[in-house]
Amino acid sequence: MADTAKQPAADEWERMLSGELYVADSPQQHDANMRKRRLVQAINTSKYDAFKERDELFHELFGAFGEGGFVEPPFNCDYGCNTFIGKNFYANMDCIFLDVARITIGDRVFFGPRVGLYTPYHPIDAAVRSSGPEGARPITIGNDVWFGGNVVVGPGITIGDDVVIGAGSVVVKDIPSHSVAVGNPCHVIREITDADREYWEGKAAEYRAWKGSIQ
What we know:
Helix content is 29%, strand content 24%. It is an alpha/beta fold. The strands form four sheets. Strands 2-5-8-13-16-18-19 form a seven-stranded mixed beta sheet, with no helix packed on it. A five-stranded parallel beta sheet has the order 1-4-7-12-15, covered by helices on one side. It has a five-stranded parallel beta sheet with strand order 3-6-9-14-17. A hairpin with a 4-residue loop joins strand 18 and strand 19 (187-191). The longest helix is centred in the C-terminal third of the chain and has 21 residues, at 194-214.
């Protein structure tokens, strides 16, 4: 019979991505971090109207950056290459993605300012923590999600589709689809219902009618 046991990680980078403890001292980690520093510096020091240049830089920085994506500078991250973003994404200024583990963001996701996605974790034991090892767990965010400003998402969290997270929330547990959640710790306060959709579709129709009337 073939040995189906999990094969050990080949290096610190593989251990980092697998969620096991690792130490960030490998050549690959160094090179990836320096690459990020170069690209983030170029993004954050670009001219105010250099939209095309920044779009190209974000496409180079991220593992994937879907069509219609837009990130307001300043921005920062750990590696960038471990972040995968779908279509029509928007992030306001001062967002930070610590993508030590993979960050996956779906389509039509909007972030307010100063959103933090933090995949790293550190040992609770002080002696182990101070000796250097750390870890990370992936963050997954579904489609049609909106975060208010200053939302923090911790390691290992999954957020479903069609979710609103209130400003200032600290997300330490998974959030199910079709819900509004707020607080520290963040918790679901209600579902998103057909009544919500009908109300906002009506408000949007009202806006389109007004817009048509003044053109």
